[in-house]
Amino acid sequence: MNLLPGGVLGDKCGKGPGYASPEEAIRCGSRETLMYAMCIVPPSQRHIRHDCMATVDIDPTSPTYCQVISRWRAPYKGDELHHSGWNVCSSCHGDSKKSRNRLILPCFNSDRIYVLDTGTDPRSPQLFRVIEPTDVHKKTGLGAPHTSHCLGTGQVMISCIADANGNGGKSGFILLDGKDFDIIGNWEKGPVTPKFGYDFWYQPRHNVMMSSGFGAPNVWRSGFVADHVDQGLYSSSIHVWDWTTHTLQQSIDLGTDGLIPLEIRFLHNPAAAEGFVGAALGSCVFRFFKKSGEWAAEKVIDIPAKKVEGWTQAEMPSLVTFILLSLDDRFLYISNWLHGDIRQYDITDTSNPKLVGQLFVGGNLCKDRNIKVLEDPEGMIATHTEPLYVKGLRIEGGPQMLQLSLDGKRLYVCNSLLSVWDQQFYPELPKKGSTMLQIDVNTEMGGLTLNPNFLVDFGDDPDGPMLAHEIRYDGGDCTSDIWL
């Protein structure tokens, strides 16, 4: 491992919520047994059906392995559950009075926020609190809540993509108290905020938070239109915040290669002054880093578009929609939602990631979809990829949300991006529903292998097919825990 100077910070594993260090999480973390999956109703049914959070048994010794064992259904329609976050994580490690027992569920479309009780019965979480959109709008002026992170103070912070009207021009962060989850107000201070928000990650040792930006909710909620990019309705910037004063210090324009920067991650090592952000439309990954007191960014991964025939455009971008870092900061994983492959990069040299694993798990290039590859600059695909079948079921869509086991050996993937975009780019996906797959990871040399015995089919929901987006373990994971 290439992080963790100074070693383990705690005197024993499991003291307080989370872990004392990333190393401790790897060494002492138990194997994941439950997965919470955010499941969205297809767009055509959002006014008659309810989104749900599905609890999935992923314990291979269990008789209900790979089955949905409970479903909490949202009391309102049209929410679009998206990402989630814990009330506490490893940033609160050592505080025996705190427990990771509430899961915060911001809603992309309704601006509502749910809080679920996962502590009373982890196998069947129930509603603890509803924060209504009227309260969000009135108390913060924000809308389209996205990423939720706990803070070392015990409070919860949620990024919002735009203003309460969904027009953009203003973004920010909601601050909740960590007990009753009342809205405290806005985290950000000062007159200047980014035009669009999305994801964020903080690194207190450098007094910094980095955030990214998506686009105007009133635009992307109706589907993707290329002209909207030229009209400035999508972002190409990441933002540097002073963690102490809560003020915007710097914005870094990534240019056209950095269009629609989504997931942003510092290295897990709390002393690190660098991280990565994936640019969806640019199909690139940028490294951001501290240099002479300022922050800068450089493109370190560039996945070229493929020239195609039979698609809506003459060229198909890979669409890097998700990135994830292993807890030892050795591997970076990315999802290419349109091309259909997951890639694993060795980032021992953070400025020069090395591709060490690749696996196609669907995508638009399958030969039964009648899209022909005319030219592949990478030389990886001559014409098509084979459609993927797992346990006899054809896997629809492309890889999107990823979650990695604490020991880095198992990578889980779901395939829904955003319900209206799913319908636009993968019309069969809303009809048949999402799936969850597991990929075995070679943590020594690199390499990805599909587990043929693991399949969770969200198409067999009693109410009809569901679109599974984010997936999260009940005990914390690579994308939720932050160390101080």
TrEMBL record:
Pfam families given in the database record: SBP56
Enzyme class: oxidoreductase
The entry's keywords: Selenium
Organism: Pomacea canaliculata
SUPFAM superfamilies: 3-carboxy-cis,cis-mucoante lactonizing enzyme
InterPro entries recorded: Se-bd (IPR008826), WD40/YVTN_repeat-like_dom_sf (IPR015943)
Protein name as catalogued: Methanethiol oxidase
Enzyme Commission no: 1.8.3.4
Highest taxon, organism lineage: Eukaryota
Pathway: Organosulfur degradation
Entry similarity comment: Belongs to the selenium-binding protein family.
GO terms for MF: methanethiol oxidase activity; selenium binding
Reactions performed catalytically: methanethiol + O2 + H2O = hydrogen sulfide + formaldehyde + H2O2 + H(+)
